[in-house]
Write a structure and sequence with these properties.
Elements: E1 2-5, H1 10-13, E2 25-28, H2 32-41, E3 45-49, E4 52-53, E5 56-58, E6 65-67, H3 72-75, E7 79-83, H4 87-94, E8 98-100, H5 108-113
Parallel strand pairs: 1-2, 1-3, 3-7, 7-8
Antiparallel strand pairs: 4-5, 5-6
Length: about 120
């Protein structure tokens, strides 16, 4: 199992609790080439975790995408677990298989933006 964890904000740093006991190979904010090779080498399951949109997983600067449509061909034969906001929309668009979150709220601002005012 491979985990690619994109840490862009303090709340995404705490996401390591999701995979801490899985015994997976973990890449935190890897370069594109390092991630690409790790994806090629991983025979089965890949977890992507961080902030994102329906267009992919955002990079650590939140000014572009780390995983987007250009990565889909590498992911088609893998089981992918996408943990970012709207990862399910990304997976549906490109026919990826695995488990994908629809809205992974990770901070108070996201709660408020999504109408959760009574917490």
């Amino acid at each position: 199992m491979l985990v690619i964890h994109i840490i862009s904000t303090e709340d995404t740093r705490s996401f390591s609790n999701v995979y801490v006991d899985l015994g997976a190979r973990v890449l935190i904010n890897p370069s594109s080439s390092e991630a690409r090779q790790a994806i090629i080498d991983e025979p089965e399951t890949i977890i992507f975790i961080g902030h994102g949109t329906e267009y992919g997983l955002l990079n650590s600067r939140l000014d572009g995408y780390f995983i987007d449509s250009g990565w889909v061909n590498l992911l088609r034969d893998k089981t992918v677990i996408g943990i970012w906001c709207y990862a399910g929309n990304f997976a549906d668009r490109y026919g990826l298989r695995g488990f994908f979150t629809s809205n992974f709220i990770s901070n108070i601002d996201e709660l408020l933006e999504n109408g959760f005012n009574n917490f």
